[in-house]
Design goal:
Elements lengths: L2 H8 L10 E5 L10 H8 E3 L6 E9 L2 E10 L3 E6 L5 H13 L11 H4 L1 E8 L7 E15 L14 E7 L2 E5 L7
Antiparallel strand pairs: 1-6, 2-5, 3-4, 5-8, 6-7, 7-8, 7-9
Helix pairs in contact: 2-3
Length: 181
């Protein structure tokens, strides 16, 4: 059998598409979102299925290195948003960060349940129903960076964008064809 035929047989559904995704925002109780929750789903331009890394421990023995699995770490998760004139999404993330640490006083809320949130990213299938084929829940997340928005007279025909970077404890994965956990 030709290699192309083998490839075709393994890509029966056409392959997963990077532009078919959805994000679900479960805001913490301590943050007032002013309508940003729904807007986040629509105006989220880019996200990722988050990574995780298992470190390695090199154990030297008689001139050789024995590689042993180390601890799992989770890199920060970054999402890109299209900015709307009302700034609802950006304002909500700024409020969330202010809950963690205020600008002037340097005080913040240290009750974890009031600033942790579970965020969800879903990979959708290319079909009429946009079925969910993979769901990842990002557990105990909070924003650590709301990026700058560059302003310039020579930037025309462009809508503003900004990124939000989240730290989190870990992620869990569930897969289904109907979106259920």
């Amino acid at each position: 059998m030709f290699q192309v035929d083998r490839l075709k047989n393994n890509l029966k559904s056409g392959g997963a598409r990077a532009n078919l995704f959805n994000t679900v925002w479960d805001w913490p109780a301590g943050v007032e979102v002013d309508g940003a929750g729904r807007e986040c789903q629509i105006l989220c331009k880019a996200a990722s299925l988050p990574s995780s890394v298992i470190g390695q421990i090199d154990v030297p023995f008689r001139g050789r290195q024995l590689k042993v699995a180390g601890d799992r770490t989770f890199e920060n998760w970054t999402v890109t948003f299209i900015n709307e004139n009302n700034f609802n999404i950006r304002n909500s993330f700024e409020k969330w960060m202010s809950l963690l640490n205020q600008h002037q006083e340097g005080k913040g809320n240290h009750i974890l349940e009031q600033y942790y949130a579970t965020l969800t990213v879903q990979q959708l299938q290319r079909s009429e129903a946009d079925d969910v084929v993979k769901t990842i829940k990002i557990v105990d997340a909070f924003p650590v960076n709301v990026s700058a928005i560059d302003l310039s007279y020579d930037t025309t025909d462009t809508i503003e964008e900004f990124t939000v970077e989240f730290a989190y404890q870990y992620w869990t994965s569930a897969s289904s064809t109907d979106g259920s956990q």
